[in-house]
Design brief:
- This protein has about 160 residues and is of the alpha/beta class.
- The protein has 5 helices and 5 strands, in the order E-H-H-E-E-E-E-H-H-H.
- It has a 5-stranded mixed beta sheet with strand order 1-4-5-3-2, sandwiched between helices.
- A hairpin with a 6-residue loop joins strand 4 and strand 5.
- Helix 1 runs antiparallel to helix 2.
- The protein is globular.
- It starts with 7 loop residues before the first strand and ends with a helix.
Length: about 160
């Protein structure tokens, strides 16, 4: 099992999440992660603060995505949570602050021990999201199990 594979868990894949905006989405995801023991109580505020300072939206060749994450002290154990929302959520693009709308969020739970993986994770996401076949199959995946198996196979 690769270092990346260990970050995925079927219980952290949520489809058709309803949220009116980024804050509501982040709150819902933070509550789920907190209940499952992945994050600290401080996670929600830290996540929003970091997103305000360093937006994580990325417009790739085939799919606009966001890769929200908080600083490691807010994360108890490493994870990648995959979220597909019912409606488009407004975010800002990484590095340029331009507007973006997406339904596809990949929350990265990075701890101090895995901080070196962060750059590799971002690079791998960019490779996959610029691969038309990968994105097509990801978009067609309709269950957490299908998404989990696909990411384990391709990541």
């Amino acid at each position: 099992m690769s270092d990346f594979e260990k970050l995925f868990n079927k219980e952290l894949i949520f489809i058709d999440v309803e949220a009116v905006d980024r804050t509501e989405l982040f709150r819902k995801v933070a509550e789920k992660l907190l209940r499952k023991g992945y994050v600290e109580e401080s996670y929600f505020e830290a996540l929003n603060r970091r997103e305000d300072e360093f937006p994580t939206g990325i417009v790739t060749e085939n799919l606009p995505i966001a890769l929200p994450h908080a600083n490691p002290e807010n994360v108890k154990k490493p994870f990648i949570a995959i979220i597909k929302t019912k409606n488009l959520i407004h975010v800002e693009q990484m590095g340029i602050g331009e507007d973006e709308e997406t339904r596809d969020f990949f929350f990265l739970g990075i701890v101090k021990e895995t901080q070196d993986l962060q750059v590799k994770l971002l690079q791998r996401f960019m490779q996959l999201m610029n691969d038309g076949n990968f994105v097509k199959n990801y978009k067609e995946s309709s269950s957490p199990t299908d998404i989990y198996n696909y990411f384990i196979e391709k990541f």
